Structures are given as C-alpha cells and as structure tokens.
C-alpha cells in the first residue's frame, strides 16, 4: 500500500491528452440573390410583352380600319363655300333686276324675249357657281385626305416606336439576365474555391499523425511511400522492427 508521504506517496497523474488543432472553417459569403428581380417596381419582361402587343394591335387597327377623312375637314370650309355661293347669288339677282328694268323700259317686260334672257342668265350664273364651288370642295377634300394619311402615317410611326421600345426592354432584360448569370457563376466559383481550401485543410489535419511519423522514419531510410500499401510485409519492418534494428546496432 502506497504511503501518504515520501516520493512515492502521491498518486501519479496521467498526462492530459493533446488537444487536436481546430479545423479551419470556410469563410461565409452571402448566397447569390438569383431569385430577386433586377429592378423594383418595373419588370422589363412584362414591359416588352405589353409594348409588343400594343404595337401589333395598333398597327392592325390602323391598317384594317376605315380612313376617317371627315374628321379632318376644315371647319371653315363650308363657311367659305356658303359665302362664295351667296356672292354669286347676289350677283345673279342684281343681273336679273337689271334685265327686268331694261325689258320694262323697252316695253317687253314679261315677254318671250325677257323670259329667254332670264333663263340664259340663270344658267350662266349656275355654271359660274359650279365652277367656283367645285374647286373649293375638291381642295378641301384633298386637304382632309392628306391630313388623314399623315395622321395614319404618324400613328404607324408611333406604333413602330412602341415596338422599338419593347425590343429595347427585351434586350435590357436579356442583358440583366446574362449579368446575373455571370455574377452567379463568379460567386459559385468563389464558394467552390473556399470549399476546396477547407477540404485541403481537413485532409492535412487528418494526415497529420501519419506525416509526423514520416520524419523519424525518413531519418532511418524507412520512409514509406505516401498513400501506398503492399502485402509484402518483409520489405516494411514497421516501427517495432525499426526499433529492434536500432537495439541490435547498439549491442554490436
């Protein structure tokens, strides 16, 4: 029984086991925000689809719909025609009064010659009115037609511009998607590099005991090949065989 005093009296304390080195932890990086929209409050894909649909609908309506020329008539055209017609009618009446006065002075008022003169006068003034009013109406119609065609051309230009804006929105969305994909690939490559570095650190930690034995074995010329095993045990004496060889050398 061991005594309580003296050199051998105390209990022998076992050495504390060596602490394993802490394994390196890979750095944490934020996950790529692949699911977030490229812009808040505005979706280029929806804008492109809506713009293209509106452009096609507007073009179809303008090309298949009737040309509304009456909407482009000059509102003062009828006033000009009426004033011209009134002026011609006033001149006709003045001429008829003059013919009546002349026939009355000649004592032929109401006679056949007076009636023929009035008929010829009315016909001439009617022809005069037609020749004066027809160009006015034709000019007004041609102007309204030109304005209607210009309006249709302008609307077609606006539809084409809307289609171009839709195409721009589509290209913008495609460029954003490509940029996001490249950013995601870059972040994936960075994460893979960190994972590979952590895996390498863990492999070094796991192989540390074996690597620590390679130093004394290499000093004795018995360093095994890393990662290789052989069934021939005579070529590899092991640690006990190496220690026995050292003891044998000391004896002799």
How is this fold's topology laid out?
Elements: H1 44-64, H2 77-105, H3 112-206, H4 208-219, H5 238-251
Helix pairs in contact: 1-3, 2-3
Output the structural class: mainly alpha
What is the subunit organization of this protein? single chain
The termini sit apart by: 42 Å
Proportion of residues in β-strands: under 5%
Number of strands: 0
User: What percent of the residues sit in helical stretches (DSSP H or I)?
Assistant: 55-70%
Number of H- or I-type helical stretches: 5
Q: Outline the low-pLDDT stretches.
A: 1-35, 227-234, 248-252
Main sheet specs = none
Alpha carbon gyration radius: 56 Å
Whole-number mean pLDDT: 74
Q: SSE order, as H and E?
A: HHHHH
Shape: rod-shaped
What structural keywords apply?
about 250 residues; mainly alpha
Walk me through the structure.
By secondary structure, this protein is mainly α. The chain has a domain at 44-207. It is 68% helix and 0% strand. It contains five helices and no strands. The chain has helices spanning 44-64, 77-105, 112-206, 208-219, 238-251. Helix 1 (44-64) packs antiparallel against helix 3 (112-206). The longest helix has 95 residues, at 112-206. The radius of gyration is 56 Å and the shape is rod-shaped. The protein starts with 43 loop residues before the first helix and ends with a helix. The model is unreliable at 1-35, 227-234 and 248-252 (pLDDT under 50).
